[in-house]
Each structure stands twice: as structure tokens, then as C-alpha cells.
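Chapter summary example.
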Amino acid sequence: MFLLFAAAIVVGAILLGSIAGVVVFMLLGRFGKRKARRQALLADSNKRLKAIVAELLERINSIEEARQYKPDGINNSKLTVAISDLSMVSDCLCTIDQLLGEKRFDDANDMLARSSRVVEKVMRILNQVESGAPLLSDGSVNLKLPKSDGLYRMKSSEK
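The structure predicted for these 159 residues follows.
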């Protein structure tokens, strides 16, 4: 009787252990898939951001060429800010690739988000410069650039 009871306890423990093992295996499998999906999404976003930066650099180049012929028609200070911001973003793209290689997805995501905001600002400036519309500003713009130590403070010139 005692052997039967002990055998039932051992079989129950084995069954419980195998169920726990299957649950752990399933959770780890889902975690790995989620991690791979996140890495693919971040890599795709970085690739798209590189294409956008390349296009914006071409637009700036064409504006620079136009500025040689018509220097008074283009707001030089805003264009200079756009060029410097875009060069900082292009430098950050290599860092994002490195972070993705190191599997530091949270840091890569933060840098992509900050870089995207800076690219949006540059696009807005370039659209306004190309259309010849007056640039609207509140006097100063604070940007926390990707992984910088402090704030980049830019004072806009008022017309």
C-alpha cells in the first residue's frame, strides 16, 4: 500500500514537472519570437529613416545650389540649422545600427524616436524654405538630441 502511494506521488510529481517544463518552453518561445519581431521592426524603421535622410540631403543640396544664384531669397539661418540637425541625425543612424547589433532595443527605439522628431522638424523647415513662406517660431526651440548630454538650444532670428 505504501509503495502504491509513493508511486502515485512520484507519477504526480513527474506529470507536474513535465507540464511546468512545457509551459516554460512555450513562454520562452513566444519571448524569442517577440524579440525577433521587435528587432526586425526597428531595423526596418532605421532603413526607412536612412532613405528619408538621403532624400532630405538631396533637397538641401538643391536648395544650396539655388542659393548660389539667388542668395537673398532663402533664409540662411534656418537652412544652416536644418543642415546641422540633419548631419547629427545621419551620425546617429550608425549608432542605431550598432545598438541593434548589440540587441539594445530600448536604446535603439529611443534614438529612432528622437531622430524621427528631428527629421520631421527639418522637413518642416525645408518645406517652408522651398515654398518661400515665413518661418513661424516661438523664439526658441529646445531639442533633446539622441543620446546627447544636454539640450541643444537654438535661438531663431526674428524678422
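To summarize the output: The chain has a mean pLDDT of 75.
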